[in-house]
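Hey team,

Filing this mostly as a record. A colleague (T.K.) asked me to run one chain through the structure pipeline before their review meeting, and I want the input and output archived in the tracker in case anyone asks later how it was produced. No errors, nothing strange. Just documentation.

Input sequence:
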Amino acid sequence: MSLHLYFLRHGETESSQTGTYCGFTDVNLTEAGTAMAQAFADKYQRLEWQAVYASPLKRTVATATPLCQAIGQTMQLRDGLKEMFFGEWEEKTHEYVHEHYNDDYIRWLTEPAWNPPTGGETGVQVASRASLVVAEIEANHTEGNVLIVSHKTTIRLILCNLLGIDSGRYRDRIHLPVASVSLVCFDRHGPMLVKHGDRSHLPEELDSRPGT
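Output structure:
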């Protein structure tokens, strides 16, 4: 068996419902987000897991916890898996940022790999720190199932890096709803995307909830 790397975006938060920028801001899951985490654990605890890696923020830890409890696995926290730091845009709406940081906002929309949110991180910086965690996992686990619980921007940038997609296009090429699962399998030809944005583990009332 080759290395199977599962990516799980955290469950619903108030920020994912409202669409405000939420990077290092340490928010909790909503009640629905907690239910999403449990639904993932209920479905995926049947797999044999080698390790669980997670961002240390509350929303990702809470998302990983039900599975770790079910399988008796200790999650390994890595700062490299944190969400992008949005700087002065943290907790602001898209409309507010467009109005008050228009020039930076337009530059970021045009080329987010190299242009940061005002006072925040570039996509390249996020991809760099996250890739170090992926490299660590590849070195420590040559086969089996490994779970990464992280965030929208971070997972999209990791996928771009693994699949040879221009990092500047991560916002345009990869959709990633909350609590969704993506799977990359490594074989002799390199990483292959086998599953993406899957939420089949969620009951209908959770899968139908709006949000970014």
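Quick notes for T.K.: Residues 123-140 form the longest helix (18 residues). The mean pLDDT is 96.
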